[in-house]
Amino acid sequence: MKIAKQLLDFYINSSIHVALSVYALSWITLLIFNLPYDENILYFNFYATITGYNFVKYFGIAKWHHRSLARWLKVIQVFSFFSFLLMVFYALKLEANVLFILAGLGIITFLYAIPILPKRIYLDEQQNLRQISGLKVYIIAAVWAFTTVVLPALNNHQELTSKVWITVLQNFVFVLALMIPFEIRDLKFDSIKLATIPQQIGVKKTKILGVLLLLIFLGLNVFKEEIITIYLYKEIIMTFILMLFILFSTKYRNTYYTSFWVEALPIFWLILMLL
To answer: What residue intervals traverse the membrane (predicted)?
Structure first.
Protein backbone atom coordinates (compact mmCIF):
# COMPACT_ATOMS: atom_id res chain seq x y z
CA MET A 1 0.00 0.00 0.00
CA LYS A 2 2.84 2.40 0.79
CA ILE A 3 4.37 1.93 -2.67
CA ALA A 4 0.96 2.40 -4.32
CA LYS A 5 0.44 5.64 -2.39
CA GLN A 6 3.91 6.88 -3.36
CA LEU A 7 3.20 6.14 -7.02
CA LEU A 8 -0.18 7.90 -6.80
CA ASP A 9 1.42 10.91 -5.13
CA PHE A 10 4.09 11.07 -7.83
CA TYR A 11 1.41 10.76 -10.52
CA ILE A 12 -0.41 13.76 -9.03
CA ASN A 13 2.56 15.87 -7.88
CA SER A 14 4.42 15.49 -11.18
CA SER A 15 1.33 16.94 -12.95
CA ILE A 16 0.69 13.83 -15.06
CA HIS A 17 -2.92 13.77 -13.86
CA VAL A 18 -3.67 17.39 -14.69
CA ALA A 19 -1.89 16.95 -18.04
CA LEU A 20 -4.21 14.05 -18.88
CA SER A 21 -7.15 16.33 -18.09
CA VAL A 22 -5.88 18.95 -20.55
CA TYR A 23 -5.24 16.18 -23.09
CA ALA A 24 -8.82 14.97 -22.56
CA LEU A 25 -10.41 18.40 -23.04
CA SER A 26 -8.30 18.94 -26.17
CA TRP A 27 -9.45 15.63 -27.64
CA ILE A 28 -13.05 16.49 -26.77
CA THR A 29 -12.67 19.63 -28.91
CA LEU A 30 -11.57 17.49 -31.86
CA LEU A 31 -14.60 15.25 -31.37
CA ILE A 32 -17.04 18.17 -31.07
CA PHE A 33 -15.82 19.68 -34.35
CA ASN A 34 -15.52 16.30 -36.07
CA LEU A 35 -11.77 16.74 -36.53
CA PRO A 36 -9.33 13.82 -36.82
CA TYR A 37 -7.23 12.62 -33.90
CA ASP A 38 -4.22 14.97 -33.86
CA GLU A 39 -1.28 13.36 -32.09
CA ASN A 40 0.90 16.45 -32.44
CA ILE A 41 -1.36 18.95 -30.67
CA LEU A 42 -2.62 16.46 -28.09
CA TYR A 43 0.84 15.29 -27.09
CA PHE A 44 2.12 18.86 -27.16
CA ASN A 45 -0.64 19.96 -24.78
CA PHE A 46 0.10 16.99 -22.53
CA TYR A 47 3.84 17.64 -22.21
CA ALA A 48 3.41 21.42 -22.14
CA THR A 49 1.02 21.07 -19.20
CA ILE A 50 3.53 18.98 -17.26
CA THR A 51 6.31 21.46 -18.05
CA GLY A 52 4.24 24.55 -17.27
CA TYR A 53 2.60 23.29 -14.09
CA ASN A 54 5.83 21.94 -12.63
CA PHE A 55 7.61 25.17 -13.50
CA VAL A 56 4.95 27.21 -11.70
CA LYS A 57 4.69 24.87 -8.70
CA TYR A 58 8.35 24.17 -8.07
CA PHE A 59 10.28 27.17 -9.42
CA GLY A 60 10.45 28.88 -6.03
CA ILE A 61 11.42 25.70 -4.20
CA ALA A 62 14.16 24.83 -6.68
CA LYS A 63 15.42 28.42 -6.69
CA TRP A 64 15.91 28.70 -2.94
CA HIS A 65 16.57 25.09 -1.94
CA HIS A 66 18.47 23.65 -4.90
CA ARG A 67 21.27 22.34 -2.66
CA SER A 68 18.96 20.41 -0.41
CA LEU A 69 16.20 19.27 -2.73
CA ALA A 70 14.13 16.37 -1.51
CA ARG A 71 14.57 13.22 -3.55
CA TRP A 72 11.01 13.40 -4.91
CA LEU A 73 11.57 16.92 -6.18
CA LYS A 74 14.78 15.93 -7.94
CA VAL A 75 12.90 13.13 -9.68
CA ILE A 76 10.16 15.56 -10.73
CA GLN A 77 12.80 17.97 -12.04
CA VAL A 78 14.33 15.26 -14.23
CA PHE A 79 10.87 14.14 -15.36
CA SER A 80 9.96 17.75 -16.18
CA PHE A 81 13.14 18.19 -18.21
CA PHE A 82 12.32 15.21 -20.44
CA SER A 83 8.72 16.44 -20.71
CA PHE A 84 10.11 19.80 -21.86
CA LEU A 85 12.18 18.09 -24.57
CA LEU A 86 9.11 16.20 -25.79
CA MET A 87 7.09 19.41 -25.70
CA VAL A 88 9.67 21.07 -27.97
CA PHE A 89 9.68 18.01 -30.25
CA TYR A 90 5.91 18.21 -30.81
CA ALA A 91 5.94 22.03 -30.97
CA LEU A 92 8.14 21.81 -34.06
CA LYS A 93 5.35 19.84 -35.77
CA LEU A 94 2.62 22.42 -35.12
CA GLU A 95 1.22 25.02 -37.51
CA ALA A 96 2.84 28.47 -37.50
CA ASN A 97 -0.31 30.29 -36.31
CA VAL A 98 -0.53 27.89 -33.37
CA LEU A 99 3.04 28.74 -32.37
CA PHE A 100 2.12 32.44 -32.38
CA ILE A 101 -0.64 31.86 -29.81
CA LEU A 102 1.65 29.56 -27.84
CA ALA A 103 4.11 32.43 -27.45
CA GLY A 104 1.42 34.46 -25.68
CA LEU A 105 0.39 31.56 -23.45
CA GLY A 106 4.05 30.93 -22.65
CA ILE A 107 4.54 34.54 -21.54
CA ILE A 108 1.51 34.26 -19.25
CA THR A 109 2.90 31.06 -17.71
CA PHE A 110 6.29 32.74 -17.22
CA LEU A 111 4.75 35.79 -15.52
CA TYR A 112 2.61 33.49 -13.38
CA ALA A 113 5.72 32.14 -11.68
CA ILE A 114 8.52 34.69 -12.15
CA PRO A 115 8.73 38.01 -10.24
CA ILE A 116 9.10 40.59 -13.00
CA LEU A 117 6.30 43.20 -12.86
CA PRO A 118 6.22 46.31 -10.57
CA LYS A 119 5.94 45.58 -6.84
CA ARG A 120 2.99 47.90 -6.26
CA ILE A 121 0.47 45.61 -8.01
CA TYR A 122 1.36 42.50 -5.98
CA LEU A 123 0.23 41.17 -2.65
CA ASP A 124 3.73 40.47 -1.38
CA GLU A 125 7.36 40.14 -2.31
CA GLN A 126 6.83 37.12 -4.61
CA GLN A 127 5.77 39.51 -7.40
CA ASN A 128 4.18 37.07 -9.83
CA LEU A 129 0.74 36.98 -11.47
CA ARG A 130 -0.29 34.26 -9.06
CA GLN A 131 -0.14 36.80 -6.23
CA ILE A 132 -2.32 39.51 -7.81
CA SER A 133 -5.51 39.69 -5.78
CA GLY A 134 -8.38 37.62 -7.21
CA LEU A 135 -6.70 36.93 -10.56
CA LYS A 136 -5.45 33.34 -10.27
CA VAL A 137 -8.55 31.33 -11.22
CA TYR A 138 -9.32 33.52 -14.23
CA ILE A 139 -5.79 33.22 -15.62
CA ILE A 140 -5.86 29.43 -15.28
CA ALA A 141 -9.34 29.13 -16.82
CA ALA A 142 -8.40 31.38 -19.76
CA VAL A 143 -5.17 29.49 -20.48
CA TRP A 144 -7.00 26.15 -20.32
CA ALA A 145 -9.77 27.41 -22.62
CA PHE A 146 -7.38 28.66 -25.31
CA THR A 147 -5.12 25.61 -24.99
CA THR A 148 -7.90 23.04 -25.23
CA VAL A 149 -10.06 24.70 -27.90
CA VAL A 150 -8.21 27.27 -30.02
CA LEU A 151 -4.97 25.31 -30.41
CA PRO A 152 -6.58 22.02 -31.56
CA ALA A 153 -8.91 23.95 -33.89
CA LEU A 154 -6.19 26.03 -35.53
CA ASN A 155 -3.78 23.13 -35.88
CA ASN A 156 -6.45 21.34 -37.91
CA HIS A 157 -7.30 24.37 -40.08
CA GLN A 158 -10.67 24.82 -38.39
CA GLU A 159 -12.03 28.30 -39.03
CA LEU A 160 -12.57 30.25 -35.80
CA THR A 161 -16.34 30.46 -36.15
CA SER A 162 -18.83 31.55 -33.52
CA LYS A 163 -19.16 27.90 -32.47
CA VAL A 164 -15.43 27.78 -31.69
CA TRP A 165 -15.59 30.92 -29.54
CA ILE A 166 -18.70 29.67 -27.75
CA THR A 167 -16.79 26.46 -26.99
CA VAL A 168 -13.87 28.56 -25.70
CA LEU A 169 -16.28 30.36 -23.37
CA GLN A 170 -17.81 27.04 -22.32
CA ASN A 171 -14.43 25.60 -21.41
CA PHE A 172 -13.54 28.81 -19.55
CA VAL A 173 -16.74 28.55 -17.48
CA PHE A 174 -16.31 24.78 -16.99
CA VAL A 175 -12.75 25.16 -15.69
CA LEU A 176 -13.84 27.98 -13.36
CA ALA A 177 -16.46 25.62 -11.92
CA LEU A 178 -13.92 22.79 -11.79
CA MET A 179 -11.61 24.96 -9.67
CA ILE A 180 -14.21 25.79 -7.03
CA PRO A 181 -13.58 22.62 -4.96
CA PHE A 182 -9.86 23.52 -5.02
CA GLU A 183 -10.62 27.09 -3.91
CA ILE A 184 -12.73 25.80 -1.02
CA ARG A 185 -10.11 23.23 0.00
CA ASP A 186 -7.36 25.86 0.00
CA LEU A 187 -9.23 28.19 2.35
CA LYS A 188 -7.14 26.87 5.23
CA PHE A 189 -3.89 27.62 3.36
CA ASP A 190 -4.45 30.74 1.24
CA SER A 191 -3.48 34.18 2.45
CA ILE A 192 -6.52 36.40 2.93
CA LYS A 193 -4.80 38.86 0.59
CA LEU A 194 -5.32 36.47 -2.34
CA ALA A 195 -9.03 37.39 -2.34
CA THR A 196 -10.12 33.99 -3.63
CA ILE A 197 -13.79 33.50 -4.44
CA PRO A 198 -14.64 31.71 -1.13
CA GLN A 199 -12.75 34.39 0.81
CA GLN A 200 -14.77 37.13 -0.86
CA ILE A 201 -18.28 35.67 -0.78
CA GLY A 202 -18.11 32.66 1.55
CA VAL A 203 -18.33 28.92 0.92
CA LYS A 204 -22.13 28.71 0.55
CA LYS A 205 -22.33 31.47 -2.06
CA THR A 206 -19.28 30.02 -3.83
CA LYS A 207 -21.13 26.72 -4.24
CA ILE A 208 -24.16 28.58 -5.59
CA LEU A 209 -21.85 30.38 -8.02
CA GLY A 210 -20.44 27.00 -9.10
CA VAL A 211 -23.94 25.72 -9.87
CA LEU A 212 -24.73 28.90 -11.84
CA LEU A 213 -21.49 28.54 -13.82
CA LEU A 214 -22.47 24.99 -14.78
CA LEU A 215 -25.92 26.15 -15.88
CA ILE A 216 -24.23 28.82 -18.02
CA PHE A 217 -21.92 26.11 -19.40
CA LEU A 218 -24.94 24.13 -20.58
CA GLY A 219 -26.97 27.18 -21.60
CA LEU A 220 -24.30 28.40 -24.01
CA ASN A 221 -25.24 25.48 -26.28
CA VAL A 222 -28.35 27.45 -27.26
CA PHE A 223 -26.15 29.88 -29.20
CA LYS A 224 -24.55 27.16 -31.33
CA GLU A 225 -25.84 26.76 -34.86
CA GLU A 226 -26.06 23.01 -34.45
CA ILE A 227 -26.07 20.74 -31.41
CA ILE A 228 -25.11 17.07 -31.47
CA THR A 229 -27.72 15.59 -29.15
CA ILE A 230 -25.65 12.69 -27.84
CA TYR A 231 -22.80 15.06 -26.92
CA LEU A 232 -25.27 17.34 -25.13
CA TYR A 233 -26.54 14.42 -23.03
CA LYS A 234 -22.97 13.64 -22.03
CA GLU A 235 -22.36 17.29 -21.11
CA ILE A 236 -25.44 17.14 -18.88
CA ILE A 237 -24.06 14.03 -17.14
CA MET A 238 -20.71 15.76 -16.58
CA THR A 239 -22.44 18.89 -15.30
CA PHE A 240 -24.42 16.88 -12.76
CA ILE A 241 -21.32 15.02 -11.52
CA LEU A 242 -19.26 18.20 -11.14
CA MET A 243 -22.20 19.87 -9.42
CA LEU A 244 -22.19 17.10 -6.80
CA PHE A 245 -18.45 17.50 -6.24
CA ILE A 246 -18.93 21.25 -5.76
CA LEU A 247 -21.85 20.85 -3.35
CA PHE A 248 -19.99 18.29 -1.21
CA SER A 249 -16.76 20.29 -1.11
CA THR A 250 -15.41 21.50 2.24
CA LYS A 251 -12.07 22.88 3.36
CA TYR A 252 -11.59 19.66 5.34
CA ARG A 253 -11.67 17.31 2.33
CA ASN A 254 -8.41 15.44 1.80
CA THR A 255 -6.19 16.33 -1.13
CA TYR A 256 -7.27 13.32 -3.22
CA TYR A 257 -10.87 14.58 -3.34
CA THR A 258 -9.76 17.50 -5.47
CA SER A 259 -6.32 16.65 -6.84
CA PHE A 260 -7.41 13.21 -8.05
CA TRP A 261 -11.20 12.87 -8.29
CA VAL A 262 -12.21 16.40 -9.32
CA GLU A 263 -9.19 16.70 -11.62
CA ALA A 264 -10.19 13.39 -13.24
CA LEU A 265 -13.58 14.67 -14.43
CA PRO A 266 -12.35 15.84 -17.88
CA ILE A 267 -10.83 12.37 -18.35
CA PHE A 268 -14.15 10.77 -17.45
CA TRP A 269 -15.89 13.19 -19.85
CA LEU A 270 -13.60 12.05 -22.67
CA ILE A 271 -14.37 8.41 -21.90
CA LEU A 272 -18.09 9.23 -22.13
CA MET A 273 -17.54 11.00 -25.45
CA LEU A 274 -15.72 7.99 -26.89
CA LEU A 275 -18.42 5.49 -25.91
So the answer is: 12-35, 41-60, 72-92, 98-117, 137-154, 166-185, 206-224, 230-248, 255-274
